[in-house]
Amino acid sequence: MLSSSELTKTIVDKAISLGASVAGVADIESLKDSPSHRLYPKIGMNLDVPWQEVKDEDISDEVAWPNDALSAVIIGVAHPIEEPELDWWDGRGTSGNRILMRINEELSEWIENNFSIKTYKLPYLIEKGGIFLKDAAVMAGLGCIGQNNLVLTPGYGPRIRFRALLLDRKAEAPGPLEFNPCQDCGQPCRKACPVKAFENTVYLTDDAGQLLLPGLDGTYDRVTCNLKMEQDIEDAVMDMQAGQEESQALRQAIDKFEEGGMAKQHAESDYCVKYCRRCELSCPVGQ
Ligand code: B12
Ligand code: SF4
Ligand code: SF4
Question: Which ligand ends up closest to the CA of 215?
Answer without folding.
Answer: 1
